[in-house]
Specification:
453 residues, 8-stranded mixed beta sheet, 16 strands, alpha+beta
């Protein structure tokens, strides 16, 4: 016998996890579409040269790559942004700019598995390509905020920084030649702490005073305007760095104007993002209740990435919802809804001679837009209702021979253990009204008495 098992860093999804996962995906699509984004898809496999050298040395090490049957060097995508840059460069003549796309798909990284980190995981990206306007930066933050509000997870902190602020400060220190390595060290602050960052900076042959200055910069905290004022003083007259300050001032003012509160949005100069392709605003989102799981929605501006594939200037900005990490966090917090069915309505089948009647009843309810499951075997009613309780159905429509002869059924609220009789054969209105009222009660929208037929 072959032992049934999964590879390390990969996981199966049972219905109890997959149902809320699908609901999260539906919400992400709805929010992205509300802001005018359109869907695309790209292959899981790319030519290896498309992927390598685009993220960082670490992502290159983590790539799953091999030779295909044609002897070509290929790799599995490690994110959805690099394939997007290739996609836009390849299809630019067919796309209207600015191009706003979302892409939901699996990506693969051979990293060490840990809480919230898997080797195969789903990303839900949205990006705006073809404009350097601050409007696209602002929208990126607003979409993240809207997304988590509609996911029912408003307890978040959206932390924003700008690569040019960091780069300008390093130019002032005259260590710009080591900026890539400094930024990668800074990116480890939250996960590994200040001493690890200090140690890595020391290995770059930085002076103690330079290291202290860097740690002082990334330690700036407070209200957005105050932090930006402090950062402006620290980077001095560096033109590009001051442009980054002004950019973030515009972003902060806009998100404040539309009601995003300071407890959900802040300027955080310790955010560096380890990927090399970022050039402007960068963003990370953490859960207030579980910050240790890391960022659950990250991204930023990358104005030069498509330049690796085309001479046409195609700047971009966007972010990615880490769906599987968010699911792991909600599971750990006990915030996933308990459900193992996608149907609201359960129909027991306990009169073996009336199968066609049960099929007709189910069809009437489905045509009204409700999801319905009919039990496949004519077992005792108690056994079938136990099954319905275990699967967390909201409603059972119970009908024996007498009820079926009269064209009625018992509409039972399985949560509150109450019910009523409703007609359905000649006029399904009473039955459908009863179902709607029970679902409203179950979901807490309003409490009303269930009308009798």
């Amino acid at each position: 016998m072959i032992e049934p098992r999964t590879l390390k860093g990969f996981r199966d999804y049972l219905p109890s996890a997959m149902i809320p996962r699908e609901q999260l995906l539906d919400t992400a699509r709805r929010v992205y579409q509300r802001f005018g984004f359109v869907p695309i898809d790209t292959p899981a496999l790319e030519y290896l040269e498309i992927l390598t050298g685009k993220g960082s040395e670490e992502t290159d090490r983590q790539l799953y790559h091999f030779q295909d049957k044609g002897g070509r060097a290929v790799g599995m995508r490690f994110d959805l942004t690099v394939p997007l840059a290739r996609f836009v460069a390849q299809h630019a003549s067919e796309l209207q700019m600015p191009f706003k796309r979302y892409h939901i798909g699996a990506v693969w990284r051979g990293e060490s598995p840990q809480a919230g980190r898997f080797r195969e995981f789903c990303q839900c990206d949205f990006d705006t390509i073809g404009t350097e306007s601050v409007v696209a930066d602002i929208e990126t933050v607003l979409i993240i905020h809207q997304l988590f509000c509609e996911l029912g997870v408003p307890e978040i902190t959206i932390r924003v920084n700008h690569r040019q602020i960091l780069n300008g400060f390093l130019r002032n220190l005259k260590v710009e030649d080591r900026s890539t390595f400094v930024l990668r060290a800074i990116d480890k602050l939250e996960k590994q702490g200040e001493e690890v960052v200090r140690s890595e900076l020391q290995q770059l042959n930085l002076q103690a005073s330079e290291i202290d200055s860097i740690l002082r910069l990334i330690g700036c905290q407070g209200e957005a305007d105050a932090v930006l004022t402090e950062l402006s003083a620290m980077i001095g007259e560096d033109i590009r760095g001051q442009a980054g300050i002004e950019r973030l001032k515009q972003v902060a003012s806009a998100v404040r104007a539309v009601g995003v509160t300071s407890d959900r949005f802040r300027i955080d100069p310790s955010i560096a993002r380890g990927l090399d392709y970022y050039t402007g605003m960068i963003v990370e989102t953490t859960l207030t209740e579980l910050p240790s799981i890391g960022s659950v929605c990250s991204g930023g501006r990358y104005d030069n990435l498509a330049g690796l594939f085309t001479k046409q200037h195609l700047p971009g900005v966007g972010a990615s919802l880490g769906l599987d990490r968010l699911l792991a966090a909600l599971e750990q917090l006990g915030r996933l809804p308990a459900s193992s069915t996608t149907a609201q309505v359960f129909i027991p089948y306990f009169d073996a001679h009336r199968l066609l009647d049960y099929m007709e009843l189910a069809s009437v309810v489905r045509q009204a837009g409700w999801n319905v499951e009919v039990f496949p075997e004519p077992k005792k009613l108690g056994q079938q209702l136990k099954y319905a309780d275990q699967r967390q159905f909201k409603i059972a429509l119970i009908a024996g021979s007498d009820e079926l002869d009269r064209g009625v059924c018992q509409v039972k609220d399985l949560r509150h253990k109450i019910g009523t009789e409703a007609s359905w054969r000649s006029n399904a209105g009473p039955l459908l009204s009863a179902i709607e009222n029970i679902v409203n009660i179950s979901e807490g929208r309003h409490l009303v008495s269930i009308p009798a037929s």
